[in-house]
Design goal:
Elements: E1 2-11, E2 18-23, H1 30-37, E3 52-54, H2 56-62, E4 75-84
Antiparallel strand pairs: 1-2, 1-4, 3-4
């Protein structure tokens, strides 16, 4: 299973609507993600498989791994992860 991480983009506020996903680069360090959120976890999530609401400083820390410019003043972001099955290799 290959883990993909995205930032869910939402309109600001509690009643804001979902706008879409922005992919994080595959090389985003899981250790960085864990460092950003470990103090908020009830149970350790070192693989960062749960979803986390990002504040402006965390959005800024993740900007290098997102192709689009992030705007924490205009949007809310949630770090999320999902699994993709590993595809079998074609024998040659």
């Amino acid at each position: 299973m290959h883990i993909k991480r995205v930032l869910e983009v939402w309109e600001k506020g509690m009643d804001g609507g979902y706008l879409g996903n922005l992919p994080l680069a595959d090389d985003v360090p899981v250790t960085l993600l864990y460092e950003l959120f470990c103090d908020e976890q009830d149970k350790p999530d070192p693989d960062m498989l749960l979803a986390y609401l990002l504040d402006a400083p965390r959005v800024a820390r993740l900007q290098p791994w997102v192709a689009e410019t992030l705007d924490a003043e205009q949007y809310d972001y949630i770090l999320s992860a999902y699994g993709l099955p590993d595809l079998p290799q074609n024998p040659t």
